[in-house]
Fold this protein.
Amino acid sequence: MAYVAVKGGQDAIESSVELLKLSRSDGSAVLEIDAIINRAKQLIDRIMCEAGFYAPEYAAIAFKQSEGSLEEAVFLMRAYRSTLSQTHTSLTIDCKNMRLSRRISSAFKDIPLGQILGASYDYTHRLLNFRLRDEDEGELRSFREQYFSSIGGEEVDMRAERVSDLLKKENLMVAYEPDDTEPMDITKNKLMFPASRSARLQTLFRADTGFVSGVSYAGLRGYGFMAHPTIGELRSGHVEVEIKYILDENESMVLGEIFFTEVESFVSSHKSSEQELDELEIDVGYGLAFGRAETKAIAMSILDCALNYPTPNSPPNDEEFVLLHGEALEMSGFISHLKLPHYVTYQSKLDNIRKTRKANETAEKKG
């Protein structure tokens, strides 16, 4: 195809925007916001996580507006978030107090309260369910009524200490000094290297899920220090968000709940090979994500641990490589900017090629 210069300006841009709206108005049923929130939960979780903005309704609007483009939805969420003022800072959220709906451990068979499988695709047959094509609201309502009737309709409040706490009691975990310094806010401060752990975890939390998963997978395959970490615990559930009470700072008030998935991955600490066996310890990597984003949380925990061990020529252990290139908005934005006009720079390259070829031809003739 020949290269053709595009002309048009503002009129062409306005026509493009109208065509974009037309593409969402093809005569099919309108996609309702409530339906997106309730029937595409994990999609909404991913948008909120990569946007760093917990707002299911806004995430659904962004998804609808972007026609399902995740990077565009994240862009819209980040842009809107930047317009909001921060009126409060929450108290530290501790997922140890999580109201559990799912909790598993790959390291131990028997854990307090037992393995709580919860809602997961891990145990389903990966077969396409064609019955969903004719599914209706009445069928779903009937299933819900039968399900809650069979279990008595009582909600159980399940809470449990972390599996890692059991190992800490035996002094088997790597001990870290308590860090009460104010966490860095990467939305207000430039990311500098070496990065603090708070900045590292925030960046991984908002990083593109595919990138984080791919780099952590590279580490598992041997492109890094870690051979095969074990999931000490994966827990999902609701955690209360509290702020200091306005009239009495010694008291707190609950704003609501957020559904989180938290992961702790265990790996043997990489210390001197001359270390005595009774001094060997278990190191831990931490991952956290909105909703049921389990793959994201697991990958995050792997990279959190990997970045503690800088290794030459190993991308998963390279802090700058992992933290800068996984940034969802900058990554998609820089690639997308290639669609914008580059007429001047490209013509300059062509002129240089033409001049070089002409110079070479002249030299050959003289020779």
